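Example S7 (structure tokens).
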């Protein structure tokens, strides 16, 4: 089921099958966004509620107008500056964009992922693809092809569906989501693109995280391993994930020692997945301090501990 053949994957998408795709953030489970039955099969495979919207992935900024309308100049500037990259824009949907993509909302999420293999796949297939993270509903986003296989292997159709192996995801946490529905950008989910960067490029004040707009699917139960996550060292914990300058408490197993917040983002999900493989019931995951990607890492750790 794991493949490196681009053409085979492009034909699979065109035929309505699902293809797990590598991106710079996390792996996505992709379907032709114009094919309702194909997109609905994503929901079935993920076990995901149907009112959760999915992001449309495109290869070029030029394709944005195919999916969204009434695009503010500042939103276009964000796309031109950060795409391909870890930024999802929420915009008013074009007329053909179905409820099966938007979860019934009038808006659509769009992004161009920064991964050579997936950009080549998008170009080869000529499609926009709807793709949520390639995990079962409520569990950890996969950051490697092996993690996708572990999450979805038994739910994908081995005769039709594919997993495209693009190696480990460089960033490791999901894209920054920016709502462009108001007069200024508001951040719905933290990621590698920071609120400061969005403010500089848009020339507008940014609502750091808009608590009044809840993107369905950013629930606390997401991003969680089976193990209980403590944000402080706790004597019940069997293992620890923390920056390298945090010592391993006596008797605990070290699952990751990233040197920087960016490396922390890259390793976090794989380390929490490893905790589950080892059957731990409680792990200490110590949040990094600082801004930028550190804030996104803290956000995911906080959700995982909720
Ligand atoms: O980095 C990412 O964004 C990854 C990769 C695969 O691109 N995708 C991802 O998709 O994280 P997913 O479905 O796991 O999370 C997408 C989030 C959800 O919280 C969803 O509610 C929100 O985006 N979203 C999508 N369209 C939306 C819309 N029209 N309005 C509000 N939120 C939206
Ligand atoms: Mg997800």
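Recovered sequence:
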């Amino acid at each position: 089921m794991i493949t490196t053949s681009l053409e085979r994957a492009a034909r699979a998408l065109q035929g309505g099958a699902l293809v797990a795709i590598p991106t710079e953030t996390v792996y996505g489970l992709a379907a032709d966004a114009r094919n309702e039955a194909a997109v609905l099969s994503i929901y079935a495979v993920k076990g995901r509620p149907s009112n959760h919207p999915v992001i449309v992935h495109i290869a070029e900024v030029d394709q944005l107008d195919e999916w969204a309308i009434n695009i503010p100049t500042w939103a276009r500037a964000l796309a031109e500056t950060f795409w391909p990259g870890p930024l999802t824009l929420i915009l008013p949907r074009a007329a053909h964009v179905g409820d099966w993509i938007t979860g019934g909302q009038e808006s659509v999420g769009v992004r161009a992922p920064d991964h050579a293999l997936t950009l080549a796949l998008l170009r080869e297939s000529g499609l926009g693809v709807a793709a949520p993270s390639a995990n079962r509903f409520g569990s950890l986003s996969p950051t490697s092809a092996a993690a996708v296989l572990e999450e979805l292997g038994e739910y994908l159709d081995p005769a039709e569906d594919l997993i495209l192996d693009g190696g480990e995801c460089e960033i490791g946490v999901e894209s920054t989501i920016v709502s462009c529905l108001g007069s200024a950008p508001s951040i719905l989910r933290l990621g590698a693109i920071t609120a400061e960067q969005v403010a500089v490029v848009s020339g507008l004040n940014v609502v750091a995280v808009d608590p009044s707009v809840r993107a369905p699917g950013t629930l606390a139960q997401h991003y969680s391993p089976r193990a209980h996550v403590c944000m402080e060292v706790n004597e019940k914990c069997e293992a620890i994930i923390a920056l390298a300058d945090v010592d391993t408490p006596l008797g605990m197993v070290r699952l990751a020692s990233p040197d920087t917040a960016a490396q922390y983002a890259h390793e976090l999900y794989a380390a929490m997945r490893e905790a589950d493989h080892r059957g731990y019931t409680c792990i200490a995951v110590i949040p990094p301090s600082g801004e930028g990607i550190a804030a996104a890492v803290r956000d995911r750790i906080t959700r995982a501990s909720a």
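Notes on this example. The longest strand covers residues 87-92.
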